Every structure is written in C-alpha cells, then in structure tokens.
Amino acid sequence: MKELSLHILDIVQNSIKAGASLIEVSIMEISSDNILNIIIKDNGCGMDEETVKNVVNPFFTTRTTRKVGLGIPLLQEAAMRCNGTFEIESQVGVGTKISCSFERNNIDRAPLGDMSGTIMTIINSLENCEFNYVHSFDAKSFEFSTIKIKEALEEDNLGSPEILLWIKEFIDESTNELYN
Ligand SMILES: Nc1ncnc2c1ncn2[C@@H]1O[C@H](COP(=O)(O)OP(=O)(O)OP(=O)(O)O)[C@@H](O)[C@H]1O
Ligand SMILES: [Mg+2]
C-alpha cells in the first residue's frame, strides 16, 4: 500500500514538469465527516480537454521514454478504492487542479506517510517556482509558504541542508500539533 505522500510527490512532479511558477498542496481532514481531502494545484502549462480525458488512462502519457503514465491513474484508483472522489480541472495556459477525497477511516486508506520528507524533496527540486502547503485537521490548521520563508529568512535559496532540515522539523512539529 502506497503512502499518500508518495502520490502527492508524483502529482507535484507533473506540476514541476508543466513549468509551474506556483504549486499549492492542501490536505484537509475532517473527522466528523470521515473525510481526507487532497488538492494539488498549479499554474503550469495545463492540458487540453482531450489530454484530461486520456490522462486517467494508464496507457496515456506524453513521455517518449516509456509508454505508461501512472501518477494520475494510481491516485485516482487509491481514492476510488476508499469510496472517495477524484477530479481534474485543467486549462491550457492557465494550470491544473487535481482534487481527490478519501473516506478517512477506510481500511484501504493509505497513511499520509512522510509529508515533511516529501516537502523537503519538493522544495529541493523547485526552480523558479514557489510552493504553498496547508494542512488542516478539524478546526486546526497550519500553512507553509516558500515566499513567506524566503522573506523571513532574507534568503532566496531554500536548498541548503540547514534550511531544508529546518523546514522538515517545522512541518513535523506543526503536523504533530494538529493531531494533539
Ligand atoms: N499538472 C499537469 N500539467 C500539465 N500536464 C500534466 C499535468 N499532470 C499531468 N499532465 C499530463 O498528463 C500526462 C500523464 O501524467 P501521469 O503523471 O499520469 O504520467 P507521467 O507523468 O507521464 O508518467 P509518471 O508519472 O508515471 O512518471 C503527463 O505526461 C502530462 O502530459
Ligand atoms: Mg507523472
């Protein structure tokens, strides 16, 4: 069973490939509704209608090195297996938004996994791209934004080991606080 953080990493890698300058990830957990909702949004090149239709088909990919694109179908399959929902909204030249939800307590619902490590990996691979992350659990939430961190640290490059580790700790601590 794949961790949800790995699905998120896959989808964000699509956004990076799409040349986005802003990528936003939101995780919303509402225990009373038994829902875990994930949204990944970018302002990259977007997809036309035909591509959006084909994209949930694992035999479709614009990759030339290999015939099968699996990132999107696998996330969709994971959500459907948990009585969830899956939706892609995309417009050429505007960007792409992938929204999915899971029954939070479904036995097949994979754990979120290592979100802090995933975000570290994402930030380390960004070039000329900002990243926002919001995670909420019921009434509590926290937000992380590369723009704000850059301003606060007066540092344009977040790729140094010290800063990446600090970000990882910040995400870990904030996530723990959500659940306590
Ligand atoms: N955010 C996005 N913006 C623009 N195009 C996208 C986006 N996400 C997916 N696509 C298009 O959909 C195709 C399928 O994406 P998917 O992640 O399923 O497979 P892949 O990226 O081609 O391969 P894999 O993820 O298995 O390495 C991509 O090749 C790309 O053309
Ligand atoms: Mg992909």
The Rg value, from CA coordinates, equals 16 Å
H/E element order: HEEHHEEHEEHH
Question: Which spans have pLDDT < 50 for at least 5 consecutive residues?
Answer: none
The oligomeric status of these chains comes to single chain
Strand percentage, roughly? 25-35%
What would CATH call the class?
Alpha Beta
What can you see in these coordinates?
With 180 residues, the chain is an alpha+beta fold. The chain has a single domain, classed as Heat Shock Protein 90, CATH 3.30.565. It contains six helices and six strands; from the N terminus they run H-E-E-H-H-E-E-H-E-E-H-H. It has helices spanning 4-17, 49-55, 71-81, 115-125, 146-153, 161-179, and strands at residues 22-30, 35-42, 85-91, 95-103, 130-137, 140-145. The chain has a six-stranded mixed beta sheet with strand order 3-4-2-1-5-6. A hairpin with a 4-residue loop joins strand 1 (22-30) and strand 2. Helix 1 runs parallel beside helix 4 (115-125) and helix 4 (115-125) runs antiparallel to helix 6 (161-179). The chain starts with a helix and ends with a helix. The mean pLDDT is 94.
